[in-house]
What does this fold into?
Amino acid sequence: NAGVTQTPKFQVLKTGQSMTLQCAQDMNHEYMSWYRQDPGMGLRLIHYSVGAGITDQGEVPNGYNVSRSTTEDFPLRLLSAAPSQTSVYFCASSPRWVNTEAFFGQGTRLTVV
Amino acid sequence: TQLLEQSPQFLSIQEGENLTVYCNSSSVFSSLQWYRQEPGEGPVLLVTVVTGGEVKKLKRLTFQFGDARKDSSLHITAAQPGDTGLYLCAGDNGGYQKVTFGTGTKLQVIP
It folds into this structure.
C-alpha cells in the first residue's frame, strides 16, 4: 500500500532552472495539495486540487504551477527556481473537504543555489 | 492568514517524564488535527478533534479541544524515546484550502 509517493527525495537546482516535482497517490482521494515547510514557518499551502482538472492557489503560489490531469497525479512545477524556493516540499491527499486528515508523502528537499 | 501558535517550540525531557504541548489561536476552528513528523518523513495524523471540550486518548497521549474551539493541548504521560519528533497542530476553518498548520513543537525524549 504505497499511499502518497513523491519523487525525487533530494534535488539541487541552479537559479533560473525549472523542474517538476512528482506526486502520485493510490487511495483514490479527490483532494490533493502541495505544501512547503520552512523552519519556524510551519507548513504553508502552495496549490491544491479538488479533483481532476480543477486546481486553485493556496497561500504561497507565486513561482509554482500545478495541473491535475488524473485523480492519481498532481505534479508541481517550478518555473524559474530562486534561492527563496529552497525548502522541503510535501504533497498530500485527503478523502474529504472538511474535518479531514491529510496523508503526506515523504517530502522533497530542494536546494536552489 | 490565521495563526496557530504552538508552545513550547522545543522540549527536551528525560524518559518517563510528563509533558504538555499547546496550540493556540484567536480563530475558531471547525476541527483540529494533531500530527507527528519524524526526520526525513512527512507528518502522520495522530488525532482529529471536532467538538468543543472534546478529549481523546491514544495510549499515553491525551488530546483536548478547547471549549471555544480556539485552542488545543497534547499531553504525553511517561514519555518514551519513540515519542521523539515534531508535533504539529492543524486547524480547519471551513474547507480543505483553509487548513492552517502551527509552527510545531520539537520534542526530544532522552533515554
User: Anything to note?
Assistant: The interface with chain B takes residues 4, 31, 33, 35, 40-45, 48, 50, 56, 58-59, 90, 92, 94, 97-107 of chain A (CB under 8 Å). Chain A has a mean pLDDT of 93. The radius of gyration of chain A is 13 Å.
